[in-house]
């Protein structure tokens, strides 16, 4: 599979988000990096230990937060709109659950867990109005994390965990949970019970278009080798379509096209979904050894990584440069 590699000299990058065809370091104050090598600096110091960022689809809003902390800032066009928080409970052990979405009526929303570790709430970004507290909530015991929205905004996933710890996955239809927020609170997987085995030890998940989901399975928490797998399933009912063993842990996943996915554990490597075989690897690009939402810094710091929301390209920063891999 063909790809293009580009490097932009850059030092002191703290976070990366794609905004259309350029990159923004919101944790670093809002510096912008363009593909032609141009850099536009913005000298803002948020004076806190933020280390991660997410950006809304329009680019108007951004959230900066501490990945294993409790504090975050919501920005509008680079200015502080408000602070947000999550529960302290086990916060130092897993990745902050947060995502932006566009609601069916066009409003932009922030999805996070501002009340409890096991309760997902959806709120209007601009006003902060909570859209999921119209009914009594009784959330099950699940640590939500690594929230993600499907490309057209129909589905929401939480690649979190259950106390043991065991990685697991939840999936919802966003329109359905807005109509009935209690659907976010169930203790099932959102799938048929007969398929639940596919979602234990689910360390990572990525949408492959709107209709399919690619999963990485195999946590290896006790250092005991076990088969690592890719599982392709349907989003409407999570029916497994295909399952294949892969050579090693996947870590974060990024879908490139219908038959290729990038796994970021250690270094980026391109996998063929149909066979599980490594197609290409970039061993000089170090992307950290995050296995799942749990203990993301277990094996050291994680470099800034940006996965483009609508194009097959990703970017990773080190101390000297930003490297962009483009599969178009």
Strand arrangement across the biggest beta sheet: 1-28-27-26
| Overall body shape | globular
> In angstroms, what is the radius of gyration?
19 Å
> Which residues form runs of ≥5 with pLDDT under 50?
190-195
The beta-strand count equals: 28
Straight-line N-to-C gap? 10 Å
pLDDT average, as an integer? 92
- Our estimate of the beta-strand percent is 35-45%
Major beta sheet summary: 4 strands, antiparallel
The assigned structural class equals: mainly beta
Number of helices: 1
Give the H and E element order. Answer: EEEEEEEEEEEEEEEEEHEEEEEEEEEEE
How much helicity do the residues have? under 10%
Oligomer: single chain
Helix-strand blueprint:
Layout: E1 4-9, E2 17-19, E3 22-25, E4 31-34, E5 39-40, E6 52-55, E7 61-65, E8 71-76, E9 79-85, E10 98-102, E11 108-112, E12 121-124, E13 147-149, E14 155-158, E15 161-162, E16 166-167, E17 170-173, H1 174-179, E18 202-208, E19 212-217, E20 228-234, E21 240-246, E22 253-257, E23 260-263, E24 269-272, E25 278-281, E26 305-307, E27 313-317, E28 321-326
Antiparallel strand pairs: 1-28, 2-3, 3-4, 4-5, 6-7, 7-8, 8-9, 10-11, 11-12, 13-14, 14-17, 15-16, 18-19, 19-20, 20-21, 22-23, 23-24, 24-25, 26-27, 27-28
Question: What are the defining features of this structure?
Answer:
single chain, 328 residues, mainly beta, 4-stranded antiparallel beta sheet, 1 helix, 28 strands
Describe this structure in words.
This protein has one helix at residues 174-179, and strands spanning 4-9, 17-19, 22-25, 31-34, 39-40, 52-55, 61-65, 71-76, 79-85, 98-102, 108-112, 121-124, 147-149, 155-158, 161-162, 166-167, 170-173, 202-208, 212-217, 228-234, 240-246, 253-257, 260-263, 269-272, 278-281, 305-307, 313-317, 321-326. It is mainly β. Strand 10 and strand 11 (108-112) form a beta hairpin. The longest helix has 6 residues, at 174-179. Residues 190-195 have low confidence and may be disordered.
């Amino acid at each position: 599979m063909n790809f293009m590699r580009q490097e932009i000299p850059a030092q002191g990058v703290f976070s990366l988000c794609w905004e259309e065809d350029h990159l923004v370091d919101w944790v670093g104050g809002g510096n912008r990096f363009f593909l032609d090598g141009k850099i536009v600096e913005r000298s803002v110091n948020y004076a806190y230990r933020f280390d991660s960022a997410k950006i809304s689809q329009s680019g108007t809003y951004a959230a900066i937060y501490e990945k294993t902390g409790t504090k975050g800032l919501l920005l509008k066009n680079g200015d502080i709109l408000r602070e947000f928080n999550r529960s302290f409970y086990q916060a130092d052990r897993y990745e902050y659950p947060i995502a932006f979405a566009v609601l069916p009526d066009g409003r932009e929303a922030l999805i996070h867990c501002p009340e409890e570790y096991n309760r997902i709430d959806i709120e209007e970004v601009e006003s902060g109005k909570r859209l999921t507290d119209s009914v009594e909530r009784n959330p099950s015991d699940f640590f939500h994390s690594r929230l993600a929205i499907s490309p057209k905004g129909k589905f929401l996933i939480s690649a979190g965990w259950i106390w043991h710890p065991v990685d697991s996955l939840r999936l919802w239809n966003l329109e359905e949970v807005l109509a009935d927020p209690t659907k976010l609170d169930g203790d099932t997987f959102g799938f048929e019970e007969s398929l639940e085995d596919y979602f234990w030890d689910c360390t990572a998940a990525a949408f492959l278009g709107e209709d399919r989901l690619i999963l990485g399975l195999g946590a290896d928490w006790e250092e005991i080798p076990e088969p690592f797998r890719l599982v392709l399933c349907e989003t409407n009912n999570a029916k497994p379509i295909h399952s294949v063993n892969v050579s090693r842990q996947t870590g974060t996943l990024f879908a490139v096209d219908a038959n290729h996915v990038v796994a970021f554990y250690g270094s980026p490597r391109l996998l063929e979904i149909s066979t599980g075989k490594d197609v290409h690897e970039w061993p000089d690009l170090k992307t950290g050894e995050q296995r799942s939402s749990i203990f993301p810094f277990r094996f050291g710091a994680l470099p800034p990584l940006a996965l483009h929301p609508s194009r097959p390209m990703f970017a990773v920063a080190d101390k000297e440069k930003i490297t962009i891999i483009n599969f178009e």
